[in-house]
Amino acid sequence: MITLPPAQPVGKTTLKVPLVGFGTAPLAIPPGWGDGEPIPEQQALQALQFAFNNGIRFFDSAPAYGKGVAETRTGKFLGQIPREQVVISTKIGVDISQGNARKDYSRDGVLRCLEGSLKRLQVDYVDILHVHDPDDYAGQVLNETFPVLAELRAQGIVKAIGAGMNQWRVPMEFAQHADFDCFLIAGRYTALEQGALQFFDLCDQKGITIFAAGIYNSGLLAKGAATTKPTYNYAPAPAEIIARVKAIEAICGEFDVPLHTVATQFPLAHPAVKAVIVGFQANSEVQACLDALQQTIPPVIWDRLREAGLLDLAAPVPVSKI
């Protein structure tokens, strides 16, 4: 088991989170993000246990992941360990209580969603509660959903509140108009793209924590451009995206550093980012992530990426191994 750095505070709360979070969405989908049935439950439970045995103490889920499958599988694992040993986050806004997944950001929807999550996760409370993908509901979230979340936080039912999204513009609106503690941003701040940099900078100024998820851009930065059927944003990768990944890979190859290592360490260099949340389906993927955090990346790689126009000049980069 490797030794990860000390846990970092979430916003202005007393909660602290470890450097790596286990994103449980892949536990409810087919192997390799392909077609067919979700991965076998035993494989999911083994990955959760392996991660825990190797120092990962942060687990993120949501009702929307497989209509409760991810939470249920995660709960079977969490129910076997002392609750105080882990940090758990989940999400509200997608109601699966009737067997379908429908958006619901109402007060009743929040409470119903949280109640269902607690049962599936087999816990009495969650540490972090995010609003899930309210892309077209920003106004309702600010006027109706946020007050409920703030009430739950004030009552100590949850320790921190945030929003989990695949974009950054709506979260920026939230950061400017409400007292959120954190945001989970998937895919918008990676070694491939840094479009969310201004938002991350704003969060740093406001003391809001960012959890960087989707750091491999649907696997492209984990497996490389030569992988079979490369995907980006969970769809076939456009030619220009593949070309950009190949260019990043080529520079990494010059210094014999895996693309996966660069992709794993890059987001953590931003001061607003207190943890990366990585989706795992197998023990080997957990180990690969932990190994990547231990590797040293020559600073010249970041210089070369900047010179090639592949990295935003204003983006912070790691100064040494994590």
Structure overview:
With 322 residues, this protein is α/β, with parallel strands linked by helices. The protein has a single domain, classed as TIM Barrel. 38% of the residues lie in helices and 16% in strands. The chain is built from eleven helices and 14 strands. The chain has helices at 41-53, 69-78, 107-121, 138-154, 169-177, 197-206, 220-223, 239-254, 259-265, 283-294, 299-307, and strands spanning 8-9, 16-17, 20-23, 58-60, 87-92, 94-95, 102-103, 128-132, 160-165, 182-186, 209-213, 231-232, 235-236, 273-279. The strands form four sheets. The protein has an eight-stranded parallel barrel with strand order 3-4-5-8-9-10-11-14. Helix 1 crosses helix 2, helix 2 crosses helix 3 and helix 5 runs parallel beside helix 6. The relative contact order is 0.13.
The side-by-side strand order for the widest beta sheet comes to 3-4-5-8-9-10-11-14
- Structural class based on helices, strands and sheet pairing: alpha/beta
Helix count, DSSP H or I runs of 4 or more residues: 11
Shape: globular
Helix content: 25-40%
Can you identify the CATH superfamily?
NADP-dependent oxidoreductase domain
The average pLDDT is: 96
Determine the strand fraction and express it as a percent band: 15-25%
Largest sheet: 8 strands, parallel, barrel
The CATH class, by name, is Alpha Beta
- Label the CATH architecture: Alpha-Beta Barrel
**Number of distinct beta strands:** 14
Give the N-terminus to C-terminus distance in angstroms.
15 Å
Q: What radius of gyration results from the CA coordinates?
A: 19 Å
Following the backbone from N to C, one meets helices and strands in this order, namely EEEHEHEEEHEHEHEHEHEEHHEHH
Contiguous low-pLDDT stretches (5 residues minimum) are none
| Total domain count | 1
CATH level-3 fold name = TIM Barrel
